[in-house]
Structure formats: structure tokens, C-alpha cells
Amino acid sequence: MERRLGALGADDEWSARRASRGVASGSRVAASAGQTILAAQGVSKSFAGVRALNNVDFDLRRGEVHALMGENGAGKSTFMKILAGVQASDDGLIEVEGRAVSFSGVRDAEEAGVAIIHQELNLVSELSVADNIFLGREPRIAGMFVDRRRIIAAAERILRRLDVKIAPESRVAGLRVGEQQLVEIAKALSLNARILIMDEPTSALSSSECKTLFKIVRQLTSEGVAIIYTSHRIEEVLGLADRVTVLRDGKRVVTAQINELSHGAIISAMVGREIAANDRGASASDGAVVLSVRDLTLDTLGPRGWRRMLHGVNFELRRGEILGIGGLLGSGRTEILESIFGVARGWRGGEIAIDGGAVDIGSPADAYRLGLALVSEDRKERGLHLSASICDNIALPSIGAMSRFSLRTFAGERTLAADMVRRLSIRCTGISQSAATLSGGNQQKVVIGKWLATEPRILLLDEPTRGIDVGAKQEIYQLIFDLGRQGLGIIVVTSELPELLLLSDRILVMCEGRQTGVLRREDATQEAVMRLAAPGMAAQPQGVPS
Hints:
The radius of gyration is 24 Å and the shape is globular. It is α/β, with parallel strands linked by helices. A 6-stranded mixed sheet has the order 6-9-10-3-11-12, with helices on both faces. A 6-stranded mixed sheet has the order 18-19-20-15-21-22, sandwiched between helices. The protein folds into 4 domains: 131 residues, P-loop containing nucleotide triphosphate hydrolases (Rossmann fold, 3-Layer(aba) Sandwich); 69 residues, no CATH class; 183 residues, 3-Layer(aba) Sandwich (Rossmann fold); 72 residues, no CATH class. Helix 1 packs across helix 8 and helix 15 crosses helix 16. It is 34% helix and 25% strand.
């Protein structure tokens, strides 16, 4: 059975939009037929003898959304970087508005009207939001001094257009991943580009933020802006795109109108095979409570003083159970995991008990000793040492336990890493391969593997499939199910509602830092979760889970 993998709460909107696209979308594409704004012919690129792109043809029409899809490693990112001037192609021709172009850098592409929004954030964390939006393009007074007033005013206009409630003076380092993604979008929109490349723009956004983005996309295309859009959320593409091109192993497999392709046909084109649906089956929980959280509160210090992020959260996790935590961005989901693991910034209150005994977790080291593991939402910033090898990354949390007389046992580390690579089917050339060179799905497996190597009893997963392709998602899902059957207590935070429903035995729903309800698997629907996650429900807590 096909699983729909959309953004939180977005599936109903996609269904309605797709049903109406036969006339609305088709007429728009017909109106723009022949109005090609970008064309690529025979584009090829190799890295160290490995062919990343092989003779790829592509065209983009004015005022359309052209989705570019494929598994991690299919060549999407390389192709987009070439179009945006980040990298040069080895061969091929690129034309913008009928004129052959050769970009020597991003600035050349921007001057030609091409802008890119990278999936991996490209912001200066110590600067303000406004400074990041206009970095390198600051308006100046008399050609000398940066005009701060104009920068802040212009940033406010763009953020207002996006319906983003972030102060332009806010420091980027203090923003969550989803908020930083919106700053990246604002930065690209400030260029007034005619061609906009969006690389996984919704990967860290909440339902409401996704809808805001989609509204902006529709507004831009109505103004004639052409958009190249990549996403691993297939239902999102089915509802938003006019056409789709699928790459596999660096080659173009298919280009078609979106109404000509089904969900299953896109997956088959991407992976070259049928993907079997995951089946959660019956819960493996034996009823024993492994983790208990009572009256959990969290106060953090921000620019405007202390703010309460969590308001008296209560729940229990049983051995072998998968507890999902749902809610919109900023609802407190991540703060729960960080509070339990001892990495939350601020003042934490309440009680945490493991196997019935109260514990004091003041740091990740305390959590590690108690058998907890946390896979954070941003694997590249907080989960991996990208310049280090697979072996070093997997062995890192276990080095202390494996050391003898304070000396590292490198043979033991290699054995541990090799075992984890086999266990998780990490696709690599060997355990010495740099983590930076792996696909997103395999990087995520390395992060999970380094924590599984510590033999935890409780596994905390924050957005475990963010930014990875459909094939890798299925493998991560199956791994989570297997770990639950082995007796681990697992808590999963995810912004993708179908994923939340698929994985969870029970779902704890959060809204604005408050617990608004707990749904059993048999009672959990998209509508039920969204009713509890929507603002207004926070004042109506639905009780404590049993």
C-alpha cells in the first residue's frame, strides 16, 4: 500500500489542489508553452572519476514550478549548483532567456537572475537576520557607511511578505532550524530573481510555515518567476509542481507533466524498483515503564527576558514502545528531548525517572551514563564531525568505555564501526570514508549508529528522516521498528504527519509549550492531531497519559 509522505497537515490541501490541477495547472503551462527561460543541454560533471551527471537535458518555463526529483546521490544537488554558479560543469550548454551563459560564481548567476536556496543553511550565525539577508549587498550612505535603517526596513518588508514573525535585529544563532530556513528564503527573495532554485525548502518547516511558503511560490509564479523545486515529500510535489524531472544515477530518467505521474510512478522512476510499504505491526511494549516525566518545565533567557518554553509536561515511555511527539514548529517538541538529555538551554523544572528511580540529568554525560541517546534534528551541525571518518564518528561516544588504561583501542573502534556499517547497511567505500562525502540518508545512519553503539535503553529521535530520500526513509523506518521490537524505548519527534502516524504507538501532541492531548494509535488521525496542535488548544490540556 502506498504511503503518503507530506508535510504536517498538508495532505488534505494537496488532495484538493491535485483534483483541480487538470484545468488550472494545465492552462497555465499551455499559456507559457515555448516561453523557455532556462535550458540545459548535455550537462555532465565528474568528481574524482565518478560521474555525478551524465548528459542531462532540462528546460524551465516562465511562471512554472518544475520539480527535480531523485534519491540522494542521483545528481540533483550537483545539477542545481551548476545552474546557480556554485560549481562549473565539465560539459554541456546552459542558456538563460536564449543567451548562452557560463557562471564563474554565484554572483554571476545572481546577476543573470538566478538565485538558489540551499537545503543546508548558509547563514552567518553571529549576525542578525537583516544582516544575513543583505550580506554583501548592504546599502550604504555616501558609498561608505552601511545604512542600518534601510537594511532593517527592507528586511521587515520581506519578512512581512513571508508572514514570518522574526525580528530583523534577532541574532541568527538564537533561531531554531525552521526559522533559519525561512531567513534563507527571505534572503533569496531579496534578490528579485527571475529563476529561483529551491533545494528542500520545507525540510524543517511546520505546517503553517509550509502553507506560507506555498502561497509565496504561487504568488511568484503568477508574476512570471520560474522555480526549480526539489523535495523528498512526493505528495508536496504532486500538489505544487507543474512538471517533474526525475534523475537516477546522474541521468535524466523522465520529464513529464505532473498530472501524468502517480505517487508510485515517481517512486519507481527515482529508485528503479517498487518500494514495499512498512508495517508497524503490534506494539512490542511489555508494559514496563522505562522513562517517566512529571511536570517538566523549561525557562529560557532571550532578548526580551525569561520565557517559559515548556509548561508542566507529563508522560511515560514503556519498554519497546514508540512514542511520537507531534505539533507545529515552536510547540516545544525538541525542547522536551533536549531537556531529557541535558542539553536544553535554560532552567529546567520537574522530575525525570528511569526504571522508577528519580534521576538528575544535568549534561549529556549524565544522560549517556543512564542509557539515553539523542539523535538531534541537525545532523551536520550537532550530529556529525563531517571532516572525520565514519569510524571516528561511530566510535566517538564509546571511546571512553572502550579505552584501556586511558589509551584508545583503535582495533576495537574499527571493529565496532565495521559492525555498525553492516548492521545499518551504510553504503560507503569503507569505514575510513569521510562523513562529508556520504549521502544524507547514510549520514543519518552514521548518527544513529554512533548512538546504537553505546547500547542505549532509551533512544530520542528528533526529525530522523529530515532531508533524506524515500528509499532511505523506508530503511530508517524499518530500523526504528526493529529497535522497538528489541525492547528499546523510543521517542520520535517529526514534522511529517504521515510519518508520525506510521511510527507511533501513542502520540503526545504539543502546542505553544503545552501538552494538549495523547492519542492512542487506533484513535490517531491527521485531523485529530491537527485539532490538538492548532493554536487555541494550548489553553485546553487533555490530561496526562496513562
